[in-house]
Amino acid sequence: MQLNRQVKTTFLSVSDVRHLIEREGLYNCLAGMAQAIESDFLHWKEFRKSPRMASHTKDGVIELMPISNARQFAFKYVNGHPYNHRFGLPTVMAFGVLADVATGAPHFISELTLTTALRTAATSAVAARALARSGSKIMAVIGNGAQSEFQVAAFAHLLGIQEFRLYDISMDATRKLVDNMRHMGLDAKPCANVASAVKGADIVTTLTADKNRATVITPTMIEPGMHLNTVGGDCPGKTEVHPDVLRRARVFVEYEPQTRMEGEIQQMPAHFEVTELWQVLARQAPGRSNNEEVTLFDSVGFALEDFSALRYWKTLAGHWHVGQRLDLVPQLEDPRNLFACLRMGQECEV
Q1: How far apart are CA 126 and CA 193, in angstroms?
Q2: pTM for this structure?
Q3: Which of 151, 192, 275, 332 keeps 20 to 30 A from 49, CA to CA?
Q4: Which residues are catalytic, by number?
Q5: What number of CA atoms fall less than 13 Å from residue 182's CA on the CB side?
């Protein structure tokens, strides 16, 4: 009997992803990931979607994020623990799988800790290109933690933002961001408080990590024409903006059933009107109507973006011949005889 078709699983480690970014360049990776995300949003109706499954504790959250189309299934394992720095661990850690729908064979596994930061920034840029005022040049970055450099890089390269105003309750975090921006050739303006960072900004991005209901952005800070990119509020009981800010803005979301539970709009009644981003990208709903309108992208992170990121890395890994072969699935002479793996002298790779 001939061996059946083998399952070949490619694994991308953190080092492999860094290698791909070095080969392609950070800005090119952000642009490529943004293109993949926008393309998949344009095929929104082809995906089977559901809110993520979450296990919440007082210390943080662990989540599984599944999605599929007719050809591929993907999921991400990800956590969010704001105080992990006390243990020398990142706030967010993640990995993901891309599998064949027809057979269930897992063909691709990748780290998604670095990748989540990249795809979140790329998604923010996709939304801002559709919703922010044309010619926006000034961006406030509130919360200067692990995600901030990626947002800055994406908005500088993909939207042409020229001035970045920074604020964090931790001066060390801001100093870290300033230093990393200097290495990217970008200038930064640290600010004394949120209000001074936001004043006069075209785009305001919030990236705070504390798992509580906060009002980082208040109604008095809002100016006509602003675009708000709220990223930090991404689980039940965690918000960043005052409800009256939402009432003043036109609000856009990724996947409404998930955002109702986790985003800024968890503060609002069930009938509060929102528009899903894919509708704007597909020109099935209007985005910004004029230069005076306030827009808000209530970003919580959705599995489709991870699907896009995994798909992008898989293509790039094949192009550059990067990645490691994993023997994740036993290779059997008779696929119905799994026990043969345990018998001496039988052909089996485990």
Answers
A1: 28
A2: 0.94
A3: 151
A4: 234
A5: 8
